[in-house]
């Protein structure tokens, strides 16, 4: 039996409205009626406030094999400390996710996006669903839309997987995603463990509580005559604790907010992009900050990315950790993860540092 009570659990978080498939729109965007295209035009998102590609600021690169090795650990941990405190974003190399696991998932995703629309829509997000193939946070017919299709799935703990939302084509998709999910969850917990050490708190306090993982697979179709007036993914910080982002094909698009500008990030081959989410900012009482980022679209090429979003288990508490607050003042409210997730999904929009703002005490 595929549907158990446990994997229906995420349903209580709410759902979204169905929207048009953007990949299909992009295929014939020259003949699209103006009123459809209009919903994707966002002049306020002008893509002109970007730092030059050759700027001197380089996103930190953390080598996980050096963190694992006693000889180089301290040196690499101090780089990690700087990356977390100053950037909130870094690239992770030698992370240990096997190349085969990454390649198999990439291959299956390319095959999924090559399927005809009717086949892809077998897992379309239905009204009231959060999971499936569609777009998140849509609540009205007027709302402006991102130029992307999203495939959102709960992947951890394993009993939260609801396979009716998982593509059955290609047939190896399920295994590929499960292997990738298991491997990335290990990496996320390992990095969270090192962060705990750096923060001088018990490993378990932030690493072990990150029991859940969902994945958001993003497909950004190209758009030749509107790429500078549309946005692939609206500016936002991630609501979870820690995100690992894998870029499936070598097309740039991710930009992070840095010193009031948008800094384009192009991952090193094989690297994962790691970033701190709102839940970790709240747990660390603001010591680590979530950083806003967005995805822009390309005039000629499609872009695909996979965000693995790691969050505390539903029964865990998201609030400033006593060990960090000490004699100080907690800056955020404490809520259970289930309340946190309900609040996150009830805001029908991606915007700014949503959860940090909503849970701030005395804003
Ligand atoms: C996300 C995200 C960026 C990208 O899925 O939360 O920020 O480059 N994605 O696709
Ligand atoms: Ni994000």
TrEMBL record:
Residue ranges of domain Fe2OG dioxygenase in the record: 211-312
Single Gene Ontology MF annotation: metal ion binding
Record key words, sorted: Iron, Metal-binding, Oxidoreductase
Any coiled-coil regions, as ranges: none
The keyword Ion transport belongs to this UniProt entry's keyword annotation: no
InterPro entries for the chain: DIOX_N (IPR026992), IPNS-like_FE2OG_OXY (IPR044861), IPNS-like_sf (IPR027443), Oxoglu/Fe-dep_dioxygenase_dom (IPR005123), Plant_2OG-oxidoreductases (IPR050295)
UniProt record similarity statement: Belongs to the iron/ascorbate-dependent oxidoreductase family.
Protein name in UniProt: 2-oxoglutarate (2OG) and Fe(II)-dependent oxygenase superfamily protein
Species this protein is from: Rhynchospora pubera
């Amino acid at each position: 039996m595929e549907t158990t009570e446990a994997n229906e659990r995420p349903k209580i978080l709410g759902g979204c409205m169905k929207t048009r498939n953007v990949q299909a729109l992009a295929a014939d965007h020259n003949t699209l009626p103006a009123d459809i295209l209009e919903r994707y035009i966002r002049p306020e998102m002008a893509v002109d406030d970007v730092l030059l590609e050759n700027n001197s600021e380089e996103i930190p690169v953390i080598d996980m094999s050096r963190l694992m090795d006693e000889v180089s650990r301290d040196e690499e941990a101090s780089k990690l400390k700087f990356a977390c405190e100053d950037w909130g974003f870094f690239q992770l190399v030698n992370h240990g996710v096997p190349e085969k696991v990454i390649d198999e998932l990439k291959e299956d995703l390319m095959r999924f996006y090559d399927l005809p629309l009717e086949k892809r829509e077998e897992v379309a997000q239905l009204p009231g669903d959060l999971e499936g193939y569609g777009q998140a946070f849509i609540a009205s017919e007027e709302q402006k839309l991102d130029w992307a299709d999203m495939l959102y799935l709960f992947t951890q703990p394993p009993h939260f997987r609801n396979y009716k939302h998982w593509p059955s084509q290609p047939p190896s998709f399920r295994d590929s995603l499960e292997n990738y999910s298991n491997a990335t969850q290990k990496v996320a917990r390992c990095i969270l463990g090192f962060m705990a050490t750096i923060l001088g708190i018990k490993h378990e306090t932030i690493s072990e509580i990150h029991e859940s993982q969902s994945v958001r697979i993003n497909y950004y179709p190209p758009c030749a005559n509107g790429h500078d007036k549309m946005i692939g993914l609206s500016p936002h910080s991630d609501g979870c604790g820690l995100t690992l982002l894998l870029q499936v094909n070598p097309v740039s698009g991710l930009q992070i907010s840095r010193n009031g500008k948008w800094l384009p990030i192009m991952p090193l081959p094989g690297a994962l992009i790691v970033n701190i989410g709102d839940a970790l900012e709240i747990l660390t009482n603001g010591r680590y900050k979530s950083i806003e980022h967005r995805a822009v679209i390309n005039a000629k090429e499609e872009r695909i990315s996979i965000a693995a979003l790691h969050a505390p288990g539903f029964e865990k508490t998201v609030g400033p950790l006593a060990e960090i607050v000490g004699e100080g003042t907690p800056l955020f409210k404490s809520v259970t993860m289930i309340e946190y997730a309900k609040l996150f999904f009830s805001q029908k929009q991606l915007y700014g540092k949503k959860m940090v703002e909503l849970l701030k005490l005395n804003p």
